[in-house]
Amino acid sequence: QVQLVESGGGLVQAGESLRLSCVASGGTFAAMAWFRQAPGKERQFVAAIAWSDSSIYYGDAVRGRFTLSGDAAENTTYLQMNMLKPEDTAVYYCASRVTGTQGFGNWGPGTQVTVSS
Questions:
Q1: 15, 27, 61, 97: which one has the fewest Cβ atoms less than 10 Å from its Cβ?
Q2: Average pLDDT for residues 33-48, to the nearest whole number?
Q3: What is the pLDDT of residue 96?
Q4: What is the Cα Rg of the chain in Å?
Q5: Tally of CB atoms within 10 A around 102
Q6: What is the three-class DSSP state of 75?
Q7: In this structure, is the dihedral angle defined by the CA atoms of residues 30, 58, 11 and 111, taken in order, positive or negative?
Q8: pLDDT tier at 115 (50, 70, 90 boundaries)?
Q9: Mean pLDDT of the region 35-59
Q10: How does pLDDT run across 55-106, given as a tens digit for each residue?
Q11: How far is CA 81 from the centre of its chain?
């Protein structure tokens, strides 16, 4: 049974930083990713890492401010979020793609990030 657990959310002021962590278990994973969803808005891609070659991808809204890293052996990712803006306020979800499957089919419960102005 695949499980993902996020941690590290919280309340910060604009310009500050936060670091989110996600640990996946119960499977063999080809990739892990972060998405976010703000109230009343659609889910938005934040960043992803492919374990095969450690390729990292970022959404346009966070590129240059957020940094994704991870440990394939531990199925763990870290999302370092710098220069946070009020528009980064959202629930952040960790997702994983099991090897041999399509898409990110497993999701964590989410962690709230709130950025005050």
A1: 15
A2: 97
A3: 97
A4: 13
A5: 8
A6: coil
A7: negative
A8: very high
A9: 96
A10: 999 999 999 999 999 999 999 999 999 999 999 999 999 999 998 889 999 9
A11: 10
One-letter amino acid for residue 2 of the chain: V
What number of other Cβ atoms are within 10 A of residue 21's Cβ?
A: 15
Is residue 25 within 8 Å of residue 95, measured between CB atoms?
Answer: no
Q: Give the CA distances from residue 7 to residues 11, 54, 78, 103, in Å, rounded to whole numbers and listed in that order.
A: 13, 22, 10, 23
Quickly tell me which residue has 């992803």 as its tokens: 48
H helix intervals, 22-108? none
The neighbour count for residue 116, using CB atoms within 10 Å, is 11
Residues 35/95, Cβ–Cβ less than 8 Å: yes
Provide the token pair at 53: 């070659």
Instruction: Give the tokens for residue 112.
Output: 């709230």
